[in-house]
Amino acid sequence: MKHKVITKITSGALLCSMLTYSAPIFAYTKDETVYVKQDAYGKSYNTLVNSHLINSSEENLINDLSDLVNIKNVNGDEEFTRDRK
Question: What is the value of pTM for the model shown?
Answer without folding.
Answer: 0.48
